[in-house]
Amino acid sequence: MIMGSPAMMALAVAAPFVAVLFILFAPRRLTEVWGFIAAGIAALACASLLPAVLGGAVPEQHLLTLMPGMELVFRADALGLTFALLASGLWIITGVYSGGYARADNLKHRPRYFAAFAASVGAALGVAFAGNLLTFFIFYETLTLSTYPLVVHKESEKAYAAGRRYLLFALGSGLAMLTAIAWTWQITGSLDFTPGGFLAGQVAGPQLAVLFTLFILGVSVKAAVMPLHSWLPAAMVAPTPVSALLHAVAVVKAGVFGVMRVIGFVFGPAALADFGGDEILAGLAAATIVIGSLIALRQDNLKRRLAYSTVVHLSYIVLGAALLTPYGLVGSTMHMVNHGLAKITLFFCAGAIYVTTHRENISQLTGLGRQMPWTFGAFTVGSLALVGIPGLSGFVGKFFLARGAIQGDDVIALAIMLGASLLTASYLLPIVRIAFFPGLTPEGEAYPTHRAEAPRSMLVPLLVTSVLVVIFGVLPYAIGTQYELADLVAERVFSAARFVGDGAAPLVVEGAAGLGGGGMP
User: Fold this and answer.
1) Dist. CA 414–CA 426, nearest whole Å
2) pTM metric for this prediction
3) Which of 153, 298, 344, 371 is most deeply packed, by most CB within 10 A?
4) 23, 39, 40: which is closest to 31 by C-alpha?
5) For residue 183, how far is the Cα from the chain centroid?
6) How far are the Cα atoms of 184, 187, 197 from residue 207, in angstroms, in the given order?
7) Alpha helix locations (H) across 105-156?
8) 124-128, 355-359, 414-418 — which is least confidently predicted?
């Protein structure tokens, strides 16, 4: 295989699934080794596609033809490669962390755990490179099935209850998506993702609205848009590395990725604006941001508070895409990555706190910042990033999301985005305060200050991701030339999209978001 060739997509997707076989049947002492090898192969394969995609090419690989016009195909465009780089890159770091966590917490059934982990990342990469709705659906449902063993890994009654809820929501949404895909095939005879959408002009009126509803039901469960979100906080019963996988690497990012695919490559801005589907989705996302933030304030369990924070920030991404503006889509693409970096840092910290102190509630963290300064220092960085402090990764995505709202003259969306940043500060920064500035114990004595950090195999990954949060905040071109990829996504979608009817003007004005690959102003 030649580096950068279309075959690299198949290699990236296949490597994790091949690793599953070695993890399950090779000697147990090599369990983690196979995961690392597969993660490295997948990451290198994805990275090799970057020059071609940035150069304007869209590498494509046909896998199997089921019937004329219906085939399995991989395609690496800017949006898919962005997601693939995120998933494959963070898998390497999470693999190190998972090994440390498994040893520190004496995790049982390790081969099953690491095999399901690898299969989940492989499915996420299949979603990223899917060139049409059929390929997307197959890997999207594979992701559901491969993550289920991770959710129920502890085999407790609570874990099985969370697993049942997860399957009920995920498979129910899959049924809605399958119905939408079959209907789309019947109408258009095509399932290929097309920049600007391929349904515009093919279907209209109530039929278009119903089709949009089915697609959004199909992707909104994993995107945790309310009221389809409750499976996500329940799934926090899983081991903390699984929570990191769910929230930062695979599942929920596949959900918001799916929303962007549906908006930009199935319906397109023109079709959505024609019947107001964008306004409906934007309203759901805005409500999720506000309500999710208020619920997060009430959570004492650290992982549940972080879970509701994820619910909120996923809807930032959905809202940005629903704005139907170039800057909004740029912001969504960038926040998909930048939220992932910040959130995986926070969950890594939560796991480090648990294995070191066995404390899970925020009310139990008083004074721990002095005992675990590196861990809580990284937690502070991740929290400030999600608040949107300049110089950290979260600010970059939120900046372009805000520009997208301004570009679309949507004052309400802008107000919600800015207000939700204040709410984010109100539920994350108090954790930092009680950890570092606890005052005195109830007995009037100072809290102990002896150092008690997590094992290095857990501490190093969370420090690495916190450094990446800074790098992606100061140098947004870092690792994958993030600006250029996001700009290319907006260019491909909006250069083909025009409002139809009512004599409306073109949706995109040249240079509105650096369209044409010249970079952002």
Assistant:
1) 19
2) 0.89
3) 344
4) 23
5) 28
6) 11, 11, 16
7) 110-129, 133-151
8) 355-359
